[in-house]
Amino acid sequence: MVLEATVVCVDNSEWMRNKDYPPSRLDAQRDAVHTVCSAKTRSNAESNVAVMTIADTCEMLVTLTPDIGKILTSMHEVKLKGEVNILDGLQIAQLALKHRQNKNQRQRIVVFVGSPVNVDQKQLEKVAKKLKKNNVAVDVINFGEEEQNILLLEAFVNSVNSREGNSHLVSIPPGTAMLSEHISKSPILRSPDEPSYGGDTGSSGGGGGGGGGFEFGVDPSMDPELAMALRISMEEEQARQDRARAEAAESGGLLKLWGMS
């Protein structure tokens, strides 16, 4: 399988609070990041993955590592703030790849974009050409504001793409399926040597369920420990959200009582 160093860019802007991708854009994205990172590290034992956030001041959460546990932990430390800063995010990700220890690893950035991208197209294409010159492939997952961003992101991917078509754009509208399910069936997680079974999600992000997808994008028979870790992680997050809702409801009830007295 392909030996790669991959930097995953997470959109942690305030737009991630929206719940059009249940339970929220952030949670759906967190699940998808788990899917991407686990697939990358499983595909080749020497492949490494890093995770960074790209809203306002970009932050590297985990440097290049094969340790999926560090990545899972880091995603629960993501703080929401401001607006997505894709230009700085891409350039910082490229620097992280440039300084990878194993120079035999191919370079790839996977960027999640779930909020409006307010940048000049020429600036974005300039960054794309620099990435292409340095042999960096880029996969873009466009969701949330996919209709608003589609033309800009298509132009970016067209500029960064190689003759071999090593970069991809997958646009996923709300209400179709989990982000992780779409991504697991897309060219983003399919080896270049692997044949396509059924239609790609491609730029449209189309295609429904089916296809033998596993929960969290992980086959429990192939990696039971990772599947269990992902399940526990999601259950803990769901429990946290339930507690927060209960506390909010209790607080609202008390305020109502005080208002009546």
TrEMBL record:
<dbReference type="InterPro" id="IPR003903">
    <property type="entry name" value="UIM_dom"/>
</dbReference>
<feature type="domain" description="VWFA">
    <location>
        <begin position="5"/>
        <end position="188"/>
    </location>
</feature>
<dbReference type="GO" id="GO:0005634">
    <property type="term" value="C:nucleus"/>
</dbReference>
<comment type="similarity">
    <text>Belongs to the proteasome subunit S5A family.</text>
</comment>
<feature type="region of interest" description="Disordered">
    <location>
        <begin position="187"/>
        <end position="218"/>
    </location>
</feature>
<dbReference type="GO" id="GO:0031593">
    <property type="term" value="F:polyubiquitin modification-dependent protein binding"/>
</dbReference>
<dbReference type="InterPro" id="IPR002035">
    <property type="entry name" value="VWF_A"/>
</dbReference>
<dbReference type="Pfam" id="PF13519">
    <property type="entry name" value="VWA_2"/>
</dbReference>
<dbReference type="InterPro" id="IPR036465">
    <property type="entry name" value="vWFA_dom_sf"/>
</dbReference>
<dbReference type="GO" id="GO:0005829">
    <property type="term" value="C:cytosol"/>
</dbReference>
<keyword id="KW-0647">Proteasome</keyword>
<protein>
    <recommendedName>
        <fullName>VWFA domain-containing protein</fullName>
    </recommendedName>
</protein>
<dbReference type="GO" id="GO:0043161">
    <property type="term" value="P:proteasome-mediated ubiquitin-dependent protein catabolic process"/>
</dbReference>
<feature type="compositionally biased region" description="Basic and acidic residues">
    <location>
        <begin position="235"/>
        <end position="248"/>
    </location>
</feature>
<dbReference type="GO" id="GO:0008540">
    <property type="term" value="C:proteasome regulatory particle, base subcomplex"/>
</dbReference>
<dbReference type="InterPro" id="IPR027040">
    <property type="entry name" value="PSMD4"/>
</dbReference>
<feature type="compositionally biased region" description="Gly residues">
    <location>
        <begin position="199"/>
        <end position="215"/>
    </location>
</feature>
<feature type="region of interest" description="Disordered">
    <location>
        <begin position="235"/>
        <end position="261"/>
    </location>
</feature>
